[in-house]
Amino acid sequence: MGSLTKHHKLPVIELITNENLKPGTESWSKTCKEVVSALEEYGCFVGSYDKMTQEIHNGVYNALEELFDLPTHIKMENKSNKPLYGYVGQVPLIPVFESMGIDYANTFEGIQSFTNVMWPNGNQGFSENLLRYTKLAAELEKIVVQMIFESYGVGKYYESHINSVNYLSRVMKYREPKMNENKMGLVSHTDKTFMSTIHQINGIDGLEIKAKDGEWFGVELSPSTIVVMAGDVIMAWSNERIKPPHHRVNMEGKETRFSIGQFSFMDKMVQTPEELIDDEHPLKYKTFDHYKFLEFFSQEKNRRLESAIKTYCGV
Ligand SMILES: O=C(O)CCC(=O)C(=O)O
Ligand SMILES: [Fe+2]
């Protein structure tokens, strides 16, 4: 594992309800600039969101501990007909990693149908705890997306974009590595999403980001923060104004870590707005179907491409 640099620090952006989160205010415009500049520089930032309370955080913590304590054969019942949406675990390259996916994660029905597979007799506490977080994460992502659309002068497309977004949540456990075991929790990758949010649950850092200059740096996170990250699909949509950062999880010297990622996927064709195409930014991606892109990426032969999205629909 390469060493980490201290040259970079992920920008922390305060997102305060009733202050800078009201469209049209001066404070909103200032925050839009901070958000877009962080995304253009690092592809992600740390959002310090006042609605992300200790209570919501603790609720997710309890939910995840209870969930991962279930027997493996039950966790493996987490299946989906969408590619890469189900249970992941016991992978030889990343033995410490285990994860489950929850589709339509910000809806009652989505959480409920996941809960019913894990606990056929129901588990209301789990569902409630999780839903409070997934709704919040979706809300935060939508605010950030609105800021991006407005900043790039394409606010008129925001409503139709939001109406065709679905959220997949992935709950993740990285157990403490044993001696001589691979310490990598997740290998370097970019997300195949429009955008992602990541919340770290139990105070164990491990997320690392690759800066534009190629240097890797660690991210320190607290219970009230959520990392907001660009995926491959917003790169195509924005005609490469925003690029997804390579990131990984390193468990070297770490205790068991829990996190929850929430990933946005588009239900309609993804197209670069014509306003984002000009002489300086000629069109770089053809219009494409997000789930077909995911299918493409899920094939073994495409998993290690330099940029799956460029190969899939680059002009
Ligand atoms: O656990 C984390 O902090 C990151 C997870 C991640 O990168 C992913 O699920 O794509
Ligand atoms: Fe990721």
From TrEMBL:
Domain Fe2OG dioxygenase: 164-268
Keywords, in A-Z order: Iron, Metal-binding, Oxidoreductase
Gene3D superfamilies in UniProt: B-lactam Antibiotic, Isopenicillin N Synthase, Chain
InterPro entries: DIOX_N (IPR026992), IPNS-like_FE2OG_OXY (IPR044861), IPNS-like_sf (IPR027443), Iron_ascorbate_oxido_reductase (IPR050231), Oxoglu/Fe-dep_dioxygenase_dom (IPR005123)
Presence of the UniProt keyword Oxidoreductase in the record: yes
Signal peptide positions on this chain: none
GO terms, molecular function: 2-oxoglutarate-dependent dioxygenase activity; metal ion binding
Iron as UniProt keyword: yes
GO biological process: coumarin biosynthetic process; response to molecule of fungal origin
Entry function: Probable 2-oxoglutarate-dependent dioxygenase that may be involved in glucosinolates biosynthesis. May play a role in the production of aliphatic glucosinolates.
Family: Belongs to the iron/ascorbate-dependent oxidoreductase family.
Protein name, as recorded: Fe2OG dioxygenase domain-containing protein
Organism of origin: Buddleja alternifolia
